[in-house]
Amino acid sequence: MSGSEKISLQDALAALADKKMPILAGGTDFYPGLMDGPAPYPVLDITLISGLKTLEKMNSDWRIGAAVTWTQVVKAELPPAFAGLRAAALEVGSLQIQNSGTVVGNICNASPAADGVPPLIALNARVEISSASNVRVVPIEQFILGVRDTALEPDEIVTALLVPEFPKGTISKFKKLGTRSYLVISIAMIAVTLEISDAGIISNVRIAVGACSAVAQRLFALEEELAGLKISKIALSGSVRMDHLFGLSPIDDVRGSGGFRIEAVREILTRMLVDCANDGGPS
Amino acid sequence: MISPSRDKSSIDISFLLNGSSTTIEAIPTTRLSEVLREVNGTRDVKIGCNAGDCGACTILVDGSPVCSCITAVSQVDGKKIETLSGLAAKDPVTKKLSQSFLDHGAAQCGICTPGILVAATALLRENHSPDEALVLNALGGVLCRCTGYRKIIDAVLGVEPLNAAVSSGVGAAIARLDGDEKVSGADAFGDDVAPPGALTLRVIRSPHHHADFKLGDVSAFVDQTKGLALVLTAQDIPGTNLFGVIPGFIDQPVFAEKTTRFRGEAIAAIVGDAHVVNKLDLSCFPVEWTEREAILTSGDAQEEGAIRLHGDKNKNLMCTGLVQCGDAVGGLEVAFVKSSGQFETGFIEHAYIEPEAGYARRIGNRIEIYGCTQAPFMDRNSVASIMGLDPSAVRIVPTSVGGGFGSKLDLSFQPYVALATWMLNKPVRMTYTRIESMQSTTKRHPSEISLEIGADKNGKICGFNFAGTFNTGAYASWGPTVANRVPVHASGPYSIENYKAVSRAIYTHCVPAGAFRGFGVPQSAIAVESILDDLAVQLDMDRLEFRIFNALENNKPTVTGQVFENSVGIRACLESLRPKWTDALEQAQTYNTKAEKSGSPLRRGVGVASGWYGCGNTSMSNPSAIKSGITRDGLICLHQGAVDIGQGSNTVIPQIFASALGVPIDQILIKSADTDITPDAGKTSASRQTFISGNAARLSAEALRGEILRLTNCPPDATIRFDGSTIIVTAAHGTERQINLVSLKENDNGYVLSAEESYDPPTEPMDENGQGSPYALFGYAAQMTELSVDTRLGSIKLLSFTAAHDVGKAINPVLVEGQIHGGIAQGIGLALMEEFIPGRTENLHDYLIPTIGDVPPIETYILEVTDPNGPYGAKGLGEHVLIPTAPAILNGITHACGAKVRKLPATPERVLAEIRISNKKEQANG
């Protein structure tokens, strides 16, 4: 068979069941990971499997196929709840990386600094996992288990991310702190999704922080405090306290110390909530 | 693609490459960049990092820019691929853009240019008149280390270039003469020249900072590995297994013999067919390592009882430097105000986008080496010594150099390919990987500086005491030069009567530190200019006026006692900044008052710093020779051996030559550096080429012109015109005389008229106190920056730079601006983001250099305080451009928010910590 033929998902999964293979998608993590060594072969090339390149609404979910690139996310017409994911897409590496790299590849690579993970957690995304014999769907928070560690079995691939429809008026934000403008790995990043009722009340809130723990974490304590508040009321400065950041365990590395990361998260998140309040309009 | 049924995993892959249908056979996961370069021969696709971090390999796949180094070749089956060579030949958008790049000087070394032009083409196809933000987003993925990006932005936006040149000689802003190749993809760099079928060499390196090793059965390894031709170790070296750059400090082995002293040190090399060698897992190489305790800081290396790296060097002290005059301690004692501080900087990586690369071939009993270098004659002599050959048996032919900045002064690939080709009698090539380049080639020296300066109540500096310790790594390289240069330059361009500066270079188990744009002077300027700001504030003097008040002047001695009568340009530089400085201070104050009221965390600051730099080697002979000749056909040939590493000597030297000879530049045929063809024009370093090789070119042209005038008996102001085999000389009063070149006798070089002239700058040795005349001339600089600090995150946004440079005479203003922009970009990196940590930041995603989004608009003031020693008054520039940048930024940060960052880089974390300290002090005082 020609290596460049499009193949069906079924055939691909059958091949994977038959023989364990490395998985290749956009190549943006695959090749750097080789450290200049020769690329392994055979591989399962996700980008050559038919049907995985689409980003579309299916039933009640938005379905991000496994071969959908960051550029597709940037260019797609998506509801406002995707604003955070889109902002993250624009900060992934560079245009070249966005053109090649896939959203699903980003979560499968399971780097603590993966730009896609916090916004997908904030979007309550689920991960569709397929093998030759089974399809299962798990919440993204149960998919990434640790540094470079996911819930994927050797015979499985992620076929899509599923993002639920959010109500009208949902506010979505993403911020990343780095030391240069492009091609930068985060010191810290934060994604926020706020569902706002017609009365301007925060009905549902999800906040996720990346690069500050092995796996991006939600800030449950803060989410609980914000839920039920009027959106206009969260603009009070100092609304994020240190105890809200319980659960983050950032490491010290060349990009910054753990202590600084926590401080940066608190400051950036405080500003993001002010922005959310402004977006939410006058009370 | 999946579990191929046949044994052979190669498959046929078809794509449209620059308009031509192409089918190649490859393993599907092969990197596309490798296929495009090695199979299709599109070597305009450059590989800078092999990891998607630098964008040099950017191509268009179905119109979208991607990095071909992280694209599987199978993924482009059936697709349309465009690279620069195709676009520059056919695409009207690219053609126009290429011309714009030439006009703006937006390509310097040219190694990133293919990636930049391809990415910019994609943008301009979508949007004919993008704004700056769109340009930044489109080009954010391509790193450039030379230009500082601003000329690239201008070129893409299509703004008007500098005044079009009216002539071609000295002072004309002509496009670089080697530019066409750079913007068309035709330029050949170190990895682009090896003949097909050349064997490939890879070096086996130490994974430890310090280790003993035992080689296993190397010959069995060769026998067992099909396609492997040879393994090279220290035993194979016919000459001396040592190299270095300073006599008395030649201490680095080509291959370590029993012990490695830094992570990345070579112990062996393997040579064989490319497809075998490139795929070999080097962890199979038969070697047993015993890791030993390593010393990584100069502090640890100086401890009593510390392991000695080199037997005879007590406490690992390699060498020291000293300059003193007057009474530094006494001057400080009587000072009205004093300030002191401890400063620290780390290793800085050159991060040129072209990793070291080249090939060698044996021709009879000679070796020819083609590749990137800054110092062809030094390479020739070193390789000859290693090979046990006479220097005349080695020929070095520099390719285009994809950035150097000092590190390509030292040997890298040369001895390995030379030895392999000598033994195998076949061409052998080698290309460093990015990781290998970062691990093993020289860096900027980490510094620890303590400094105290005092001033009297009028603001006159009255005492200055400086001590700098430099971590020189495992081997000497240019460490002695750093130790020499720093005490001379630490004063900055100021008049100081009571001065003492000592420097020490210390061996550690780190990668060797060597030459990097400024040889330690940028590090010392950070300390000095920060303390000067402190003093000005204590004295309640304007920081710029304080510098002007203390500026060095004509007929006043420097700290080495050298006196310049009429060429000191620092005051002119500083004074030119006055209007901008005053405005900027006012604007910052207005902004900050508003910000304070509104509760905004942003604060504006303005910083200024000066710099000076002596051009040429320190108190040492360093001549350049330039040869020129005229053929019977009337061809004027210039043998221009000053290697162009992007800075522009291929253009500037001919401009000087053309002016001195009195002919238009387009009549000159330039023969670039080649040790068989061009006389020794010295190394491209120490900001010496325009000054020293420029003078040699001037003398060569003047000699040729003198001969022509003598033959025609015409006066000095006669004009010379070439018309075929005839030279027509016209005297001012109209008399016309001719030389029929065919009638003259040809010399061995095929010239009927020729002249080889040498220039060596007049210097004098320094005595035991560092008193003397180390340089024939200095260049001067002052830069100011406006910036904004986020006082709650510690992040910095640079808003503008204004750079005033005294270059004596701008031989080519567009190239001068290019140097200034590029130096500022490197200074930004030094100040805000760069630190090489052996074992941790060995690639271009962990080691950050500025991207196109990190360099603010730059305004340049070119000042021309001519120097009688310079050609047409010109002074050097290459290193001056970097020196004031980092301290200007640090001073701007302090002005904005009080933070005094003394350990670089000034990361957000460090800035924030210093803001807290400053706030506490303020509270305690208030």
Would you kindly provide a brief summary of this structure?
By secondary structure, chain A is α+β, with helices and mostly antiparallel strands. Chain A is built from 9 helices and 13 strands. Helix content of chain A is 27%, strand content 22%.
Strand content of chain A: 15-25%
Shape of chain A: globular
Q: How many runs of DSSP E, i.e. beta strands of chain A?
A: 13
Question: Briefly, what CATH class of the largest domain in chain A?
Answer: Alpha Beta
CATH T-level topology of the largest domain in chain B? Aldehyde Oxidoreductase, domain 4
Order of helices and strands of chain A: HEEEEHHHHHEEHEEEEEEEHH
Helical percent range of chain B?
25-40%
Overall 3D geometry of chain B? Answer: globular
Protein model, in words:
- The complex is a heterodimer of chains A (283) and B (926).
- Chain A is an alpha+beta fold and 283 residues long.
- Chain A folds into two domains: 9-44 and 56-164, 2-Layer Sandwich (Uridine Diphospho-n-acetylenolpyruvylglucosamine Reductase, domain 3), CATH 3.30.465.10; 171-279, CO dehydrogenase flavoprotein, C-terminal domain (Enolase-like, domain 1), CATH 3.30.390.50.
- Chain A is 27% helix and 22% strand.
- Chain A has helices at residues 9-18, 70-75, 83-90, 95-100, 103-109, 117-122, 140-143, 220-226, 258-279, and strands at 23-24, 44-45, 55-58, 61-65, 126-130, 135-139, 144-146, 149-150, 157-164, 171-177, 188-196, 202-210, 217-218.
- The mean pLDDT of chain A is 93.
- By secondary structure, chain B is of the alpha+beta class.
- Chain B folds into four domains: 1-161, Beta-grasp domain (Ubiquitin-like (UB roll)), CATH 3.10.20.30; 192-293 and 351-440, Aldehyde Oxidoreductase, domain 4, CATH 3.30.365; 567-617 and 776-925, Aldehyde oxidase/xanthine dehydrogenase, molybdopterin binding domain (Aldehyde Oxidoreductase, domain 4, 2-Layer Sandwich); 624-759, Aldehyde Oxidoreductase, domain 4.
- In chain B, the strands form seven sheets. Chain B has a seven-stranded mixed β-sheet with strand order 8-10-6-17-14-15-16, with helices on both faces.
- In chain B, strand 1 (11-17) and strand 2 (20-26) form a beta hairpin.
- In chain B, helix 16 (521-539) packs parallel to helix 23 and helix 22 packs across helix 23 (885-897).
- Chains A and B meet through helix 1, strand 2, helix 4 and helix 9 of A and strand 1, strand 4, helix 5 and helix 24 of B.
